[in-house]
Description:
Blueprint: H1 2-14, E1 22-23, E2 29-37, E3 43-49, E4 56-64, E5 69-76, H2 85-99, E6 104-106, H3 117-126, E7 130-131
Parallel strand pairs: 5-6, 6-7
Antiparallel strand pairs: 1-2, 2-3, 3-4, 4-5
Amino acid sequence: MWNRIFIRLHCWRGRKLGKPFLYDKFGYPYWLHKIEDLSDCSSTWLVVSGKQKSNPAIIVRLYWDEQTFSLGDISVQDGYKNRGLGSQILTKIKAFADSLNLPPIARKLTPSDEWTLEALASWYISHGFDVEVDKS
C-alpha cells in the first residue's frame, strides 16, 4: 500500500512541471517543491512554496495505513496566512485521499492564538475531513 501512495504522490508532484500546484486568493502561484520520503514508509512531509524553494508557505505531514489517510500537521507559515492556501491544500489532500478510496482524517489539531480546538475541528469538517482529537 505505501509504495502505491508514494508513486501517486510523486506523480502528483510531477504535474507541477511548468504548472503551479495551487494559487492563493491574490493569484500568486505555489508549487509542490518537496516530498520527503520518510524511512517508516507510512508518512511523508509535503512542502509547498512560491518560486523561492527556501521559503516554504505550507508544510504538511501525512500518514496512512491500510484503512485511513490522515493529516498529521498542517502549518501555514507567517507571511502566507489569510491567502486561502490552507483551504486549497486541504481540498487537494481530500481529493487525493478520495482517489485512494481512503477516508481523510485530521488527527493532530493544535490550537493557537488564532484558532481554538473547536474552530480547527469545524474547519477540517467543512473541508470533508473526519476529525479525531487525541486528548492525551
